[in-house]
Amino acid sequence: MLKYIVIHPADNVAVALQPLEEGESITCGSTDVKVREQVPAGHKVSLAHIAAGQDVIKYGNPIGHATETIEPGRWVNERMLRTNLKGISDYRYQPVPVLCPPPDRLRTFSGYARRNGEVGIRNELWIIPTVGCVNGVAERLARMLEKETRAEGIDGIRAYTHNYGCSQLGDDHEHTRRILRDMVLHPNAGGVLIVGLGCENNQPDAFRALLGDYDTERIRFMVCQHEEDEMESGMTILRDLYARMVEDRRTEVPMGKLRVGLKCGGSDGFSGITANPLLGCFSDYLVAQGGTTVLTEVPEMFGAETLLMARCKDEKVFRKTVSLINDFKNYFISHGQPVFENPSPGNKAGGISTLEEKSLGCTQKSGTTAVCDVLEYGETLSSPGLNLLSAPGNDLVASTALAASGCHIVLFTTGRGTPFGTFVPTVKISSHTGLAGKKSNWIDFNAGTLLEGEPMPTVLERFTSFVLDVASGRQTLNEENGYHEIAIFKSGVTL
Question: Half-sphere exposure (CA, 13 Å, Cβ side) for 167?
Fold first, then answer.
């Protein structure tokens, strides 16, 4: 296994793939650089003299500037590096050629064809409260039906509780309504019971209107204040939904029907070398099949946004991307916060020093294809190909937003590990083998083999087969562990 890697010829730092000891030599071109101090794995070591104020280059791009003189062989970390990011920026559309080669072969998976033409990868029965006041009712109903049926013949029974639906105003209220609407209409649900209280802001009748034209046989309502015994009424509805769902069967459908969210959390210095590039290659592969991928976590695009803007398919999509970025910067500024207060303590411990460095690694999940569309928070997919979605960096909120946009699966890369799963299968991909071994109960796929000599095409083929297996019914570890949660974006007051 290599001990270090220089990602781009223009870089003035290398990344330690294993701990580097003082006195070791690393080679940069025709020059040998002697390591001056111990450098942890995943962290950066300088390859050249970097003057104070000079840019530090990684991935071929600046990741900030040095705050002091950095001699060759030094450990480069957040203590000697500062961001170049500022507030709102002006951008110019400067497109670059983007290729999308045809697929080597058309592939399929086994999914559930829905009456409205959608395809699901799970046939689950969901209980969704309109307001947090009935969370207990929803959870109790789920337990009762699970005990009665053991979910035989379907893929699971879930109650998705949340804290909202009342005492909210403006955007917060609409965010709650839109995310819940998107969940109700998601094709991974073969049946949905919407449980209301009756006096909440998110009125059941108004929410029903928000759904538009929906399948009344598979989506049902119950308002608890209108029922003499809400448990008895709820179970009657659930039994009917369950009886319909057990008749559903998987059929072979094209891979191009698949919609996948691209996500990272607890990133480290390896994420931008292994797991994120793997997702980028997978995104290109799926798009070539006619499928759809979605990249979110807008604050983690800051510093790499121009690379995405250059790949926008036309000026209209470019303008939407500019709004996506600057609107989120304005959100930070309006709350008196800097736009660059990132990475997290875990990111820094793993070798990421600035937001630019984090963003340049994170955006590799998008691959190389054109950006086809940009979605607002709570908006659902309408364009195949690579999409951008407005959502924050918070893992729970961002994963929920990806699923709500219509994604069947969320692919979640990590260098630190996390057990979290949202309301669709949430695949955890480790950036290094050590994490995969330590947290085998969390990690579904190990991308760390890329550091050990396994070629990217081989890893991509294994990973693609794994994702298609998940789409065809193979459970992810979050599903096996019963980790299913949602989180809704909130920014305003609570009444």
Answer: 8
Tell whether 191 and 311 lie within a shared domain.
no
Would strands 81-82 and 119-120 be described as parallel, antiparallel, or unpaired?
A: unpaired
Same domain, 299 and 398: yes
Domain end (from 197, 220, 247) = 247
At residue 99, the pLDDT reads 85
Mode of pairing for the β-strands spanning 251-254 and 259-264: unpaired
Q: How far apart are alpha carbons 133 and 168 in whole angstroms? A: 14
* Integer Cα distance of 73 and 81 in angstroms: 15
Is the CA virtual torsion 356, 360, 361, 363 positive or negative?
A: positive
What is the SS3 assignment for 178?
Answer: helix
Find tokens 């071929």 and name the residue: 60
CA–CA distance, 123 with 189 (Å, rounded to integer) = 6
What was the pLDDT predicted at 336? 86
Residue 487 lies in a domain: no
Task: State whether residue 317 is helix, strand or coil.
Answer: helix
CA gap 320, 389 in Å, rounded: 11
**CATH at residue 225:** 3.40.1400.10
* Domain at 68, CATH number: 2.30.130.110
Residue 103's pLDDT is what? 87
Domain count, the chain: 3
Q: Is 334 exposed, middle or buried (0-12, 13-18, 19+ CB in 10 A)?
A: exposed
Beta strands in 52-200 (DSSP E): 55-58, 61-66, 75-76, 81-82, 108-113, 119-120, 124-129, 156-159, 189-196
pTM of the model: 0.96
Q: Is the peptide bond before 343 cis (omega within 30 degrees of 0)?
A: yes
Residues of the chain with pLDDT under 50: none
Final residue before a domain boundary, out of 228, 247, 266: 247
Evaluate whether 195 touches 134 at the Cβ level (below 8 Å).
yes
- The pair of structure tokens assigned to 104 is 């080597």
Q: Are residues 128 and 226 in the same domain?
A: yes
Summarize pLDDT for 371-387 with one digit per residue, the tens: 999 999 999 999 999 99
**Do residues 208 and 132 share a domain?**
yes
